[in-house]
Design brief:
heterodimer, A: 334 residues, alpha/beta, Rossmann fold, Hypothetical Protein Tm841, Chain: A,domain 3, 6-stranded mixed sheet, globular, B: 210 residues, mainly alpha, Serine Threonine Protein Phosphatase 5, Tetratricopeptide repeat, two-stranded antiparallel sheet, phosphoenolpyruvate--glycerone phosphotransferase (chain B)
Chain lengths: 334, 210
């Protein structure tokens, strides 16, 4: 295993120390070593935006802490949910009295820990409402949305929810628009090579050289099919073929496109994939309003990409376009 | 009447910790087949933190279970943090104030743990989870209670093993592996396996003590 860690069991702790030092202009550590928060949180009168999840997905989740996005994040072990206590402490760090929108992904551990954290919050009179992201179309059929997991499309949910909260939206308004964002987002991943949790020491799933796993999850959950490795254009076509009919995205729609590397795919190749995605959308009369390409939501050193597409309406467009200043996403108006 | 003293029970938790440490790689390997391969690592980390907290301290079974539960719930997370945290906090609650742990006290500990785990995890027998180990274990224990504490524990342990083995042929209905559908068939469930290891360890320790 060619990796740079000290004691692999403490990779998350060691990473957090460095992370807080580098990004001290945006975020700070808290009493709970597994909770980071926006330096100005709780922001007076504003709904607090909280998320959390397993580590290994940088910049997610803590990388989206910052102005107009996320207020506090609960940090878990690699690929493993944060504790209920960490979610609860994140609620407390972000709460200004206007309530907490906990926007997280649909995974068994996160569901249980958030549920327990909400019970703790109830006892301290902190109002918490949730949106559970389920944008990964390959993880379950369309008629079982409750089984679909959350992947890179969660970024749109935080962006939109965070912007709404910053504009003074009430908790119910923030929840409603974050839900709308994720309901209008569809994602799919393609994996070319597996990843290794440092403390495990070897990959826990295999992708044979010369093949690719279509529909792979953010933790190597197997996808819908294994195919011979295609060209970047072919991969773009396979992914759009899965996503577009699922929403469906149609002629006349305006969308935001996110191509995120999973960790080991060169950013250069991500642009090659994006180029074909844009062509396909243009051929179908779908207009790209804004697009993002880069390592926005990774899975350690997995090779591959996820494609996420968000269908806009006027409200979502305004919120997506709003300024944001986080480590993972910076957007300014000039 | 067969029983052991709560005061002497700390070693039950010490043995549990040892079993998890010894099976760290085995549990991760099973988890890697249909999960993400971190089950043994996270369990080992939590149980080892608990080991440091209880080492050299004079505490009874209730306090040792409570320490373990708090570490799992507040420091480990994942799916196993809340599930096993709930299991051990219930075992601590039901044994609290009981000087002697007899077969009825242990029945309450096990039954209450299972009830609360079901509440939080929403799984049932056949879903390929730790419930496939726990439910038959409790049933076997209750059915054998008339034959004495030690015998009931041994039958519980055997039923837990059969329950764990039953997960091989199951398709996961809940948790991360449920996304695999048919691809989850043919391998053990990691949670059911760690749960069996713990019930077996508890039974072995208690049989020696009663």
């Amino acid at each position: 295993m060619q990796r740079m860690v000290n004691n692999p069991d403490y990779a998350v702790e060691d990473m957090l120390k460095g992370f807080v030092k580098v990004h001290s202009d945006i975020l700070v550590g808290t009493e709970n070593p597994r909770v980071l928060k926006y330096k100005d949180a709780p922001v007076k009168g504003k709904v607090g935006i909280v998320t959390g999840g397993g580590s290994g997905h940088k910049p997610a989740f803590a990388g989206y802490i910052g102005r107009n996005m996320v207020d506090a994040v609960a940090v878990g072990e690699i690929f493993s949910s944060p504790t209920a206590k960490a979610f609860f402490d994140a609620f407390k760090e972000a709460d200004s009295g206007a309530g907490i929108a906990c926007l997280y992904g649909n995974y068994a551990g996160d569901n249980m820990n958030v549920k327990m954290a909400m019970k703790m919050a109830e006892m301290e009179d902190i109002t918490v409402k949730t949106v559970v992201a389920n944008d990964d179309v390959a993880s379950a059929p369309k008629d079982q949305p409750e089984k679909r997991r959350g992947v890179a499309g969660e970024i749109f949910m935080w962006k939109v929810g965070g912007a709404k909260a910053a504009l003074g939206g009430t908790l119910d308004e923030v929840i409603a628009v974050a839900q709308k964002a994720i309901d209008n987002t569809k994602s799919v991943g393609v994996g070319l090579a597996p990843c290794t949790i440092p403390s495990v020491g070897s990959p826990n799933f295999q992708i044979e050289p010369g093949t690719m796993e279509v529909g792979i999850g953010h933790h190597g959950e197997p996808g819908v099919k294994v195919m011979p490795l295609g060209t970047a254009d072919e991969i773009a076509e396979i992914m759009t073929d899965i996503i577009l009919p699922d929403q469906p995205f149609m002629s006349g729609d305006e969308v935001v496109v996110l191509v995120s590397g999973l960790g080991a795919t060169p950013v250069m190749e991500q642009y090659i994939v994006y180029n074909r995605v844009e062509e396909i959308l243009a051929e179908k009369g779908i207009k790209v309003h804004r697009s993002y390409v880069g390592n926005y939501f990774t899975s350690l050193e997995m090779m591959g990409v996820t494609l996420s597409i968000l269908k806009l309406d006027e409200e979502l467009k305004e919120l997506v376009d709003m300024e944001v200043d986080t480590m993972g996403l910076k957007q300014f108006k000039y | 009447m067969e029983s052991f003293k709560n005061q002497d029970g700390k070693r039950i938790v010490e043995n549990l910790i040892k079993v998890i440490q010894e099976n760290r790689d085995y549990l991760s390997k099973i988890d890697g087949e249909i999960g993400d391969g971190d089950h043994g690592i996270n369990m080992n980390k939590g149980f080892s933190i608990c080991q440091e907290r209880i080492e050299g301290k004079d505490m009874n079974l209730t306090e040792a279970f409570k320490t373990l539960a708090m570490v799992l719930m507040t420091e480990i997370g994942g799916s196993m943090g809340p599930l096993y945290g709930t299991m051990f906090i219930e075992m601590a609650k039901q044994s609290k104030g009981k000087e002697e742990i007899d077969k009825e006290v242990f029945r309450q500990m096990l039954a209450s743990a299972i009830k609360e785990i079901q509440e939080i995890g929403n799984a049932k027998v056949g879903d390929k989870t730790l419930m496939d180990t726990l439910i038959p274990a409790l049933e076997a224990y209750e059915a054998a209670m008339d034959e004495g504490f030690a015998t009931a524990l041994e039958k519980m342990s055997a039923a837990a093993e059969r329950g764990k083995d039953s997960t091989i042929d199951l398709v996961a209905k809940i948790g991360r592996a449920s996304r695999l559908g048919e691809r989850s068939r043919g391998v053990l469930d990691a949670g059911a396996t760690s749960c069996w290891l713990m019930l077996k360890s508890m039974a072995d320790s208690m049989v020696q003590m009663v």
